[in-house]
Amino acid sequence: MSDPPPKRRLRMTRQRRVILEELKKLKAHPTADEVYEVVRERLPRISLSTVYRDLETLCEWGKVRLLEVGCAKKHFDYDTRDHYHVRCARCGRVENLPVEPFTYLEQAFRDLTDYEVTGHKLELIGICPECKRKEEEEKKSKEEAP
Questions:
Q1: What's the mean per-residue pLDDT of the chain?
Q2: Which of 3, 23, 77, 82 is the residue whose CA sits 20 to 30 A from 37?
């Protein structure tokens, strides 16, 4: 059996740098399509497939986190520290929760189970302010309709 080919040393290209810069600016955690739309303003010739590939590479390098939230589309997070998220059940928007991780949970579950607990994730689900506002406007317009 032959040895696997040596790993290529990938470099921080201009495209990857721009993707990181734009991702850092965003408050919500965008999908690759949303990153593409923002990055295209600075790099009009960039392709969607390049954005997907570069986001995957940045995740592998630990510069970006791929969020595994309860929706079909992948979301990306510039903040790679442990933290929690809230997801809108209507539009899928994902944002950080402004609380520190509950590290005592891991110890509590170690004490209660035979599992070797190596970490945890927490995602709250709700309705974001924008969707809530839209729902209230729709409800109000229905009530006012003759």
A1: 87
A2: 82
